[in-house]
Amino acid sequence: MAKIRPVLFLVAILAFAGLLAGACGSDEASPAVGDAAAPAEPAPAPPEPAAPPPVSDEPAATTTAAAEPPEPTTTTQAPPPTTTTSEASAEAEEQAAPAEDPPAGADSGSGGPEPAEAPSAFSVTIESAGGTWTLDAVPQRIVSLSPTSTEILFAIGAGPQVVAVDNWSTYPPEAPTTDLSGFDPNIEAITSYEPDLVVIANDTNELVAGLTTLDIPVFVSASPFDISGGYGAVAALGAATGHVTEAREVIETMRAEIAAALANAPEVPIRIYHELDDTHFSVSSNSFIGAVYAELGTENIADPADGDGYGYPQLTEEYIIEADPELIIITDLLAYTADDVAARPGWETVTAVRDGNILVVNADIASRWGPRLPQFVTTIVEALAAIAATP
Amino acid sequence: MATLPTPDGTDPATQRAFRLSPLAAVGALIALVAVALLSATTGAAGLAFGDVVASLVDRLPLVEWDSALSARQEGILFQIRLPRLVLGMLVGGSLAMAGASYQGVFRNPLADPYLLGVSAGAGFGAVLALGFGLDVGWGPFDALPAAAFLGALVAVSASAAIARGAWRSPATLLLGGIAMAAFFSAAQTYAIGQLSETRTREVLSWLFGQLSTSGWSQVWILGPYVIFCGGLLLLHRRHLDVLRVGDDEARSLGLNPGRSRLVVIGAASLLTAAAVSVSGLIAFVGLVVPHIVRLLVSHSYRVIVPLSALGGAAFLALVDTGARTLTAPAELPVGVITAFVGAPFFALVLWRGARKVPA
Question: pLDDT digits over A62-105, tens only?
Fold first, then answer.
C-alpha cells in the first residue's frame, strides 16, 4: 500500500493536468460558454433540434395553442389550409386597412390581430405558449432560437429584422448565427441582443417566464402536428413581423409544390423506416415528420411501437428486420452512411437493403417544418415512386 | 498462492463455507442456461420456440436438424438476438465480477464501479475517444476500451489517493469516489458540449447504456478482456479473503498486500472499462449482484467472485430480454429495468438477511 500511494498520486496529478490543458485548449467560445457547456441532459436520441425529446407529452398540449395563433387549427387534414390563408389574408387587410379605417375600438382584447389604433400604426396581438403579447411596433430586433422559425422569417422577408439566431440555425446562410442555444437557452445571453421579439420552439430553462419578467415579447412556434400546422407557423410569424402578404405567398408556394409532389405519390402503401440514430430511434406518425410520411400514404413501421404517442419510439432491431421496410431513410447528420446500414449483420434480407433503397436526406430539411418542406416531400415521393415502379 | 491457508478457523464447517460448493455452482449455471434459453427464444420477431431450438442444435457439429426458420429469421436469430444475448452476459458478468473485486480489495461493501467513479472515468475516456475520432482499431483491439481504461484507472487511483489509505476508512474512500464521479461526469458533460452535433448524437446514444448490437463484433472486442481480466481476478480471489483480515496479517501469511491490490484494481478497472466501452454506462449490476451472492451463499470472496460472474451474466441477460420484449416492438433502456428489477429484489434479500451481519 505504501508503495502504490505515490504512484496513485502521480497518475491523478497527471490526469488533472491533462484535463486542464484539454479544457483550456478547447475553450475558445468566449461570450456564451455557458450555453455550450451544458447540453448534456442526455435526452435519448430523437435529436431534432427543434423538438428535443424532453418535451414529450405535456408540451404537446401547449403545441396546439402555440402553433397557430391566428386560427384554431387542429390536426384535421383538409380545412385548415383554407382557414390559414383566409386568416392570413384577413390579417393582410388589417395591415393594409388602418390607413382608411377610423381608429374605432382599439384594444378589444379578443386574441386575434387587431386593427391599429392610429393610421399607419402597427398593432398585433400574438398568442402562443409564450403568453399573449401586443406588439405596438413592427419588431426590429428579433432573436430566433428555432432553426425552423429562422428559415421562415427569412423566407417571408423578415430577415433584416432578425439580429441573432441560435447555433443550430444553419439556413439561410445570411442568417446571423450566434452561439446562442435554443436547446439550452441562456437568458442573459439572449437579452444582450436587446430583442423586441424572441421566437423559440420549446420553452426550456424557464425561458418564457424569464423573458416575461423582463417584459420581452416571446413567441413559441412549436413543432406542428402535420403539414397544415406548418402553414400555420408561417402565417403566425408573418402576422407577428408585419409580413402577412409575403407569408401568404410562401404558404401558397409551399402548398402548390407539395400538391405537385403528392400527385406523383404511389397508390400502394410503401413500408418505410426513418432511422434517427444507430440505436434505432425512429419517428412515428405522431411526430411532425412522421405525419408527413403518413400524408404521403406510406406505412410507417414505427407506428406499432409508439403506443404512448410520444412520436419518437426506439425500435428493437429484430423487429425492424422482420417488419421488412422497403425504404430506409437516414439523415446526413450521422456518423455512418447508407453503406454502413446495408452492411449491418442480419440486415441483408431486408427488402430496402437488398434493393438498395436507403435514402440519405438532409437532416435539417427533414426535421423542420419551414419553407423547404416541399423539397423533402419531393425527395421522398420520388423515392417512393421509384420503388412502386419496380416490380 | 495455492499454499495460502484459510484466513480463519480450522473448523470444518467454516472451511466449507469458504469453498465454492458444487451445488451453488451448478445452481448458478442452470440459472444462466435457463436465462439464455429464455432470451434466445423470446423477442419481437416471435420465432417459435421449437424452431429456434432446432436451428441452434442444427448449428452444432455433426447434427442435422432442419428448422422451419426462413433465411431472414435465421439472420435475426444468429446476427441480432444471439450476439446481444452473449454481449449482455459478458457485460453483466464483467461488471458484477469487477464490483465483487472492488468490494474485496477496498474492504468496503459499498464499493462498486459506479460509486468509485470508475464508470464515470471510463465514460469520460470513451467520450473523448469517440468524440475526437479515436474510435479506430489497433489490430484486434479497439482504441475505445484503452481510452476508457485510462479514464477508469485515473478515477479509481484518484479516489484511492484522496482517501489516502482507503482500505482503512470506507467512508473516505466512497466520498473520494463520489468526488471523482462528479468531476468526471462534469468533464464528460463539458466534452460532449464541445463536440459537433453528429458526434454528440453518437456519444449520447452510447452513454445511455445499450446492449443493442449488430453481429458479433462487439463480443469479439470484449471477449479477450473478459478472459484475461476475469482469469486474473479468479486467480486472486483467495487474496481478497486474506486481505480482509488486515495488511499485517496478510503479510504474515506470505502475501504482498500492495501487489495483490494493484493487480486486482488494475484487472477490475480494465474489465469495467472494456464493458463500459461496448455497452455504455449500466449501473447497479456491480453493486447488487455480489451482495445477493454474499447474502444467499457465502461471505468468502472465493465464492463471491465466480458466482457473481455467473449471476451478473444471468441477471443482465434476463433484464435485457425484458428491455427488448416488454414494450416490443419498441425498446426500453436496459438501465431502467436493472434498477426496477434489481432494487426490490436487493431490498428483499437485505431485509431477510439483516440478522446475518454481512462482511
Answer: 333 333 334 433 333 333 333 333 343 434 434 433 333 333 33
Give Dmax over CA atoms of chain B in angstroms.
65
CB A292 within 8 A of CB A366: no
pLDDT digits (tens, 9 = 90+) for A314-347: 899 989 999 999 999 999 888 788 998 999 988 9
Question: Which residues of B, range 41-100, sit inside 8 Å of A by Cβ?
Answer: 43-46, 71-73, 75-76, 78-81, 83-84
Please give the DSSP secondary-structure letter assigned to residue A146.
-
Query: Per residue in B121-140, pLDDT tens?
Result: 888 888 888 777 655 554 44
Q: Which one of A3, A5, A8, A11 would you mutate to disrupt binding with B, by most B Cβ within 10 Å of its Cβ? A: A8
List chain A residues with CB under 8 Å of B201.
Answer: 45, 47, 277, 333-335
- In our burial notation (b when 16+ CB lie closer than 10 A, e otherwise), range B83-116 reads bbbbbbbbbbbbbbbbbbbbbbbbbbebbbbbbb
Cis check: omega of the bond before A172, within 30 degrees of 0 = yes
- What b/e readout covers A157-192, taking b as 16+ CB neighbours within 10 angstroms? bbbebbbbbbbbbbbeeebebbbbbbbbbbbebbee
3-state helix, strand, coil in chain B (%, to 5): 70, 0, 25
C-alpha cell at position A362:
438532409
* A-B contacts (CB, under 8 Å): 166
pTM of the model: 0.72
Q: Which residue has the cell 445571453?
A: A189
**Looking at the partner chain, which of A11, A37, A304 has a beta carbon nearest the beta carbon of B157?**
A11
Nearest residue to A369 via CA among A201, A140, A188, A215: A201
Contact B329 A12 (CB under 8 A): no
